Each structure stands twice: as C-alpha cells, then as structure tokens.
Amino acid sequence: MATIGLFSDSQGDLDAFDAAYELLRGKGARRFIFCGGRYTDLEDWISRKKQRTKGDRNYSDTDFLADVSNFLTDQDQVSRPAAFGEAAVEKVESEDLAKLKDKFLRTPEKGSVAYLDPRIPKKSVDMLGDALCCVVHDKNELTREDLQNGLVFIHGGGDEPKVVQIGPRYFVTPGKLSGAAQQTCALVQTADRTLKVSAFRLDGQVVWPDEVISVGAKTKVSVK
C-alpha cells in the first residue's frame, strides 16, 4: 500500500507548505504531489530548511560560556556532536535535502516562469495503484486525450478539498494552503484496486475521512 500526500496553492506561504508536509508525513506519506500555486515554493522551502539546519549548528552563547568555564578550571573544551560547520556534516544534510526534492511530483501554474519553460511539463502523469493519474494545477487545461487516458485527475485551484466523480473518472483537489477559508491538504492511500482519499486542516482536524474510489476498471491509453 502506498500513501501519497497532496497539497496545492501555497502561494509563497512556506509555513503552510511545511505544516502540510509534516502533517502528511506523520500520517505515513512518503511521496507527495504538489499541484502548483507557486511552483518554486518547493525550492524555497528546501532552501529555508537548509538555512535552519545551519542555524541549529551555530556557536551559541551557552556554548561560549561552557568553554570559558572549562578553560578557567583547566579542562578541555566541551565536546559536542559533529563539530560545528564540519564539511562532512553539511554534505550529508545537503544530500538528504536533495533527496527530499525527489519525493515530489509537481506541476506549474499558468503564467509562471516554470509554466513558460518548455523543459517543464505543464501536466504530469503517474500511477496510483492500478489507476493512471494526471496532475495539473488548472483542471480546465485537461484535453480530450487526457480525459480519455486518465482515470484520476488531481488538480489545484480548489477552495476546499473535493472528490468529484464524472462517469468513470474522478477529480480530486486537496484545497488550498493559502487564499481559502481553510488551509487544507489531503492524503491518498492505494489498496486493493481502491484509493482512499482523506482531507485535513493544517491543525490535523479531519475535514472528511476515507472517500473510497474504485479503480478496478483499467483504462486504455492512446499513444500518438
């Protein structure tokens, strides 16, 4: 069973981005789908985590006083784990944060620099269990081919979390991290040809639990 976290439309609110990540990670998510709403928030969030990690290793006033006290009593400096600023420690943390970025599937919002970059796909496709899933920020950009091929569509731009069924297809939005009445995110669990979708406020309160989507019927994929 895979557990995937969904969130969208952070619009520069890195505290909300971080809160959604930690909440969903605490509920078992190891992969994440970010539907845009400021595509570059992922890099900005990781950059801030790097800065905070470095800040945690700063030589504090308490450290200074401890060293002075030990010097005056003819003792060695206080030993501390992983000497401050050690290149090896920084390398490990840098690698860990680089891997963190790889856990995200994301799509850019219309009008952003990333959206205009031909190297960055405007829509992303992945498998959720047996279901072909298409991820996009604005669901109005889905084409007839997308709708023919996909079974589950995850999108941003929704003021509240929703699962909408139209025929055999499902449209899922986690709501918004910024710019809506409630800051929300969602969780998808894949099991036994079903998807279970739950939505949460950032304080952990459940908005709605376990909406079950049946994905037993496989769709044909047309290739052009």
Structure in words:
- With 224 residues, this protein is an alpha/beta fold.
- It folds into two domains: 2-11 and 22-32 and 105-206, Metallo-dependent phosphatases (Purple Acid Phosphatase, chain A, domain 2), CATH 3.60.21; 66-102, no CATH class.
- The chain has helices spanning 14-26, 41-56, 61-72, 87-102, 113-116, 144-149; strands at residues 2-7, 31-34, 104-106, 124-128, 131-136, 152-155, 162-166, 169-173, 184-191, 194-201, 206-214.
- The strands form two sheets. A six-stranded mixed beta sheet has the order 3-2-1-9-10-11. Strands 4-5-6-8-7 form a five-stranded mixed beta sheet.
- Strand 5 (131-136), helix 6 (144-149) and strand 6 form a beta-alpha-beta unit.
- The radius of gyration is 22 Å and the shape is globular.
- Tally the helices: what do you get? 6
Number of strands: 11
Radius of gyration: 22 Å
Outline = globular
Work out the helicity level: 25-40%
What is the overall pLDDT average? Answer: 84
What is the CATH superfamily label of the largest domain?
Metallo-dependent phosphatases
Biggest pleated-sheet summary = 6 strands, mixed
The end-to-end span amounts to 32 Å
Order of helices and strands: EHEHHHEHEEHEEEEEE
Question: DSSP strand (E) fraction?
Answer: 25-35%
CATH secondary-structure class of the largest domain: Alpha Beta
- Which strand order does the major sheet show? 3-2-1-9-10-11
Low-pLDDT ranges: 76-92, 218-224
What name is given to the CATH topology of the largest domain? Purple Acid Phosphatase, chain A, domain 2
Structural class: alpha/beta
What CATH architecture of the largest domain do you see? 4-Layer Sandwich
Number of self-contained structural domains: 2
